[in-house]
């Protein structure tokens, strides 16, 4: 997915600022434009991951023109950030893992204590 971003140029005294208007509150900064753009990719991915964990809907990317109208971005540079669509994929996938038997027994006991299945317990720990 390709989200428009608004960039406010930095200088020797201020950082470059990057805002993703479609993802409310998602922004980053960097001493250079390259740093700021790299950071905004991470920020957008983290924003989407957190929203999914909370059961929130992920906004579709808007046009650059629409994104510009979501704030006071007069004089800002417009660019785009790519977000891997796999971040939005909650398809259940069966996996095979290898664990020592003693670890598996502890895992199963913890899952039972929490009232979850093994898979549910592992997912809960990962999202946690």
Automatic annotation (TrEMBL):
Gene3D superfamilies: 3.30.160.250. The lineage of its organism: Bacteria, Pseudomonadati, Pseudomonadota, Gammaproteobacteria, Lysobacterales. SUPFAM superfamilies: Ribbon-helix-helix, TTHA1013/TTHA0281-like. GO terms for biological process: regulation of DNA-templated transcription. Residues 3-126 form the HicB-like antitoxin of toxin-antitoxin system domain. This is Predicted nuclease of the RNAse H fold, HicB family. InterPro entries: HicB-like, Ribbon_hlx_hlx, TA_system_antitoxin, TTHA1013/TTHA0281-like.
């Amino acid at each position: 997915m390709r989200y428009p971003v608004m960039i406010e140029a930095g200088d020797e005294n201020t950082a470059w600022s990057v805002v993703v208007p479609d993802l409310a509150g998602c922004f980053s900064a960097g001493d250079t434009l390259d740093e700021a753009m790299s950071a905004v990719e991470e920020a957008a991915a983290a924003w989407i991951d957190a929203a999914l964990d909370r059961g929130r809907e992920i906004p579709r990317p808007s046009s650059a023109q629409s994104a510009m109208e979501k704030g006071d971005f007069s004089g800002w540079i417009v660019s785009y950030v790519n977000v891997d669509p796999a971040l939005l994929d909650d398809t259940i996938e069966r996996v095979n893992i290898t664990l020592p038997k003693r670890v598996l027994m502890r895992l199963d006991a913890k899952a039972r204590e929490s009232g979850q299945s093994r898979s549910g317990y592992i997912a809960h720990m990962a999202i946690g």
